[in-house]
Amino acid sequence: MNVWKLLQDSNLQSIVGGFYILETFLGFAPDHFKDNANDLYALFKLGLGHEDGKLKLSALKCFESYLEVLEIKKQATFQSLIISIFEAVYSLLQKDGKEDGL
Length: 102
Prior knowledge:
By secondary structure, the protein is an all-alpha fold. The protein contains six helices and no strands. The longest helix has 18 residues, at 82-99.
């Protein structure tokens, strides 16, 4: 099964798994995705905005992996995701705090 199909699956675990696989690919072969910036942007946006914490976390890790290898000039394409990233981190921290009884 191709990673893009996993990320479009209706099964939440498949999507999370797709993000983890994509994270590995982006870390080792970022040039393979150089023509997919718009697709990756949309994918990260959806993952960061999802209600499931595991999916948000996997999207955050995947985006981090991609950002580490992305040329600085091309990072501007993803600048508008900053608010989504902060919102995702905030919601994960809130959820974690509620689960710990804080």
